[in-house]
Amino acid sequence: MTDNQHQAHAKSFGAVAAEYDRARPSYPPELFEAIERLAGRPLAGADVLDVGAGTGIATRLLAERGARVIAVEPSGGMAAQLHAVSPWIPVVRGVGDELPCHDDSADLVTYAQAFHWTDAAKSVPEAIRVLRPGGALVLFWNLKDRSVDWLAEQERRHAAALPSYHYYGVMNAVTEPLAAHPLAVSREQLRWERTITVEDVITDLRSKSYFAVAEPELRERVLAEDREWLLGLFPDGRVVEPYTVDLTVAVTPR
Question: Which residue in 192, 168, 166, 216 sits closest to 16, CA to CA?
Answer without folding.
Answer: 216
